[in-house]
Amino acid sequence: MSIFTPSTLSRGRYTVGELLGHGGMAEVRKGIDTRLGRTVAIKIMRSDLANDQTFLKRFRLEARSIALLNNPNIVSIFDTDEEEITDPDTGNTLRLPFIVMEYVKGQTLRDILKVNGTLNQRDTSQIMLGMLNALEYSHRMGIIHRDIKPGNIMISEQGAVKVMDFGIARMMDDSAATLTQSQGVVGTAQYLSPEQARGEVVDTRSDLYSAGCVLYEMLTGRPPFTGDSAVAIAYQHVSETATKPTDIIPALNPIWDAVCAKAMAKDRTQRYATAAQFRKDIATIAAGGTPAIEGVDRVAPLAGAGAAAAGAAGAAAAAAGATAVMPAANAAGMNGTAGTPGAGAGSGTVPPTQALPQETTATRAFDSLDFPGTFGEDMNDFEDASMANLAHSAADVNSNPGAAANSRTQQRQAALAEKQKKRRKAITIWSCVAGAVIILAAVLGWWFLGRAQASATVPTITASMTQAQAKDAVERAGFVFQAETDSESSEDAGTFTKQDPAGGASARRGSTVRVWFSAGPQSTAVPDVSGMTQSAARQALEKAGFKVGSVSSEDSDSVDKDKVTRTDPASGSNATRGSTVNLYIASGNASVPTGLTGQTQQDATKILQDHGFTAVVRDGDYSDDVPAGSVMTVDPAEGTSVARGSSVTLVVSKGQKPQETVSLDPSRYVGQSYRNATWALGVLGFTASAQNGSSTDDSAVVTHIYANGTEVTSTTDVPKDATITLATRAGSGSSNSSTSNSNSGSTTNQQNGSGTN
Question: Is there a contact between 456 and 507 (Cβ–Cβ < 8 Å)?
């Protein structure tokens, strides 16, 4: 399956941006925590390993391990989760674990060493103090890193030291499984401890060995061991010893030899027991002191026959690849007890600070660069062997004086002959070597002299120089100056950008040095990358001379998921070469179009269809604000993010609510008494009142009827909420009142009847 990286994580909380680094198990990308508005580093497991249980277990273990740690020298973890994704090749659903970490802006120690080679002793001390502080804390929390190396140490722009990548870390109670048959050897070969290389149980001292290798590389500019393969390097960690730092960089303080020897001892019992002890010695050196380092062989050879014999026996054993056994006399000397006769020239004890005069493969940390077999060493070997032989034969002198004398004479003669043979052989070898060196020096001197006369060092041109200054510098150095125009540069016009050959290189006098000056920032059109994958869009933009900035996710109804929807600045617009272009990636959803409310049903339906949605129309209520046939509301609401092609409901208005009317016949009320007329109108739902100046007596007779101020003279549909007013005249007495009452009763019946109709 292909390697696929999602553009967002945790339901859009984290946006995934540019690649910061990658390894065999995961890649680290720069991201944005949209909830907190901060830049983070996101370590995402490779999607092609999502079904590999071994890698899943290791990745989850890293998250669990680093979550326990809270230290200023350890990269902090903010969040961890698993993202459910769909494999674009197979369609299978995968769970992709990721870790959200502190984003450290800076460089790894590996990159710094690659540029600088070696570090000065002050910077080396500061980096070691930070790294050991982190290891001291993680070890106290029960976690062994197991992969300490320059690539896992970050130096921030503020100079803070950060240890990262606990990808193969283990809890101490699980350390026995560090190098199982199923897992194999884990770690980086150039910084692997001997016990890791042998597949043994590791402990905190394995991290300290790796830290010692990192210290060695900072001091010398190279790892302690190199080889053609990881296996070859691991073998050297187990069976060979490194060269002393002072033999590589003679100006170093010799105390670094002892510190590295202690940290990189093959036998872990001879190393620093804790990171705190290691850190204490580094702090002492940084403060200008000299730490008392125990267990490192820094003692001059012991005098005396017994000690010499022990040394010869140890050397022979070491030469044969076996472990040297310490004689009883030497053991007594190590413990500070009285020496046996012949063990020293008049000395009864050995100071307790002295160590064995013979290094063994288990405790030695360095090999000297000195040539083996020098004249001095041959002489010492001869003297040591003679003293050892005399010491062994001294015990027989009293029992057989004659035999002892003969044996002693033979031994002296044999030793003298051997000495002369070695000396002749050494003289012959070194005479040949010296002659070869003299010849080689003469040839090289002649070659360099001729080359020096024909060559010169190319001057270094800088951005602060004008073209005239650059030309003068080149020609004064004996070269021909040739100016070139750099039309790809985003620097100001006339600014130096590059040269060939590079400054500091050696070139033939009279040859041409080409120097490029910027033509000024060039404006060019932003290419259209819509519909492309993120990686393809990045390549197209970079090819056009732009840098890719932030990557954000947004809805789109026309672009497939994880493809580019647009850029900022927009495609086709002109922008300065070298400027930043931001990318927007389709989320797979689409937003319901805005502006649908108030549109006619036909227009709103067309807008939805043009955006890939299905329109569903439903009748709504009356509305005083939205005309009939126009959209009142939309469900889901405008701007809502939904799946592409979803149905959207349009609720259409019925318009203004129609006014309710009542049929009003004025003849049924004119001529009636005011009392009867108002009662009859009340039955229809009206509240009638007398006009100003009209009588409201029971005997008053209605002469005119008005609806909303307009006289009703014939049967008319009047709004049910109309205002009814009556004009009246005074009645003509009681008889009229009786008549009126009689008539009103008849009118009331008719009115009731008309209301029924």
Answer: yes
* Residues 349-370: tens digit of each pLDDT: 333 333 323 333 333 333 333 3
Bond before 636 cis per omega within 30 degrees: yes
Task: Please enumerate in sequence order all residues whose Cβ is within 8 A of that of 77, keeping only pairs 6 or more positions apart, or say none.
Answer: 63, 66, 67, 69, 99, 100, 101, 102
The two structure tokens encoding residue 689? 């009142």
The two tokens of residue 274 are: 């804790």
Measured distance CA(695)–CA(673) in Å, rounded: 10
- The strand ranges marked E within 246-383 are 366-367
Q: 167 and 269, same structural domain?
A: yes
Identify the domain boundary among 286, 315, 349. Answer: 286
Number of CB atoms found within 10 A of residue 187's CB: 23
Binding residues: 43
Express each pLDDT in 31-68 by its tens digit: 999 999 999 999 998 877 777 787 788 777 777 777 77
Secondary structure of 469-521 as H, E, C letters? HHHHHHHHCCCEEEEEEECCCCCCCCCEEEEECCCCCEEECCCEEEEEEECCC
Look at residue 3 and give its three-state secondary structure: coil
Decide if 2 is inside a domain: no
Count the domains in the chain.
6
Task: Give pTM, 2 decimals.
Answer: 0.42
Q: Pick the most confident of 371-380, 445-454, 520-529, 744-753.
A: 520-529
Q: Is 722 inside a domain boundary?
A: yes
**Nearest Cα to 43, choosing from 33, 54, 29, 31?**
29
Ranges 285-294, 386-395, 680-689: which has the least confidence: 386-395
Task: State both tokens at 468.
Answer: 């005239």
Q: Are residues 212 and 84 in the same domain?
A: no
In a domain, 322, yes or no: no
Active-site amino acid positions: 147
Give CA–CA dist 189/197, Å, rounded.
8
467 and 573 in a common domain: no
Tell me, what CATH number does 25's domain have?
3.30.200.20
pLDDT at residue 85 in the model: 83
Question: Is 335 a domain residue?
Answer: no
* CA 615/CA 290 separation, integer angstroms: 84
Q: Could you tell me if 146 and 206 are in contact, meaning their C-beta atoms sit under 8 angstroms apart? A: yes
Binding residues for ATP: 43
CA atoms within 13 A on the CB side of 682: 9
SS (H, E, C) 225-245: CCCCCHHHHHHHHHHCCEECH
The angle at the Cα of 243, spanning 242 to 248, to the nearest 5 degrees, equals 145
Domain that holds residue 252: 106-150+160-171+189-286
Element (H, E) at 717: strand 716-719
Are residue 629 and residue 483 in the same domain, yes or no?
no
Do 25 and 118 have their domain in common? no
672 in the same domain as 742: yes
Nearby residues of 244 by Cβ (< 8 Å), 6 or more positions away: 257, 260, 366, 367, 368, 369
Do 485 and 533 fall within a single domain?
A: no
Here the tokens at position 594 are: 């805005």
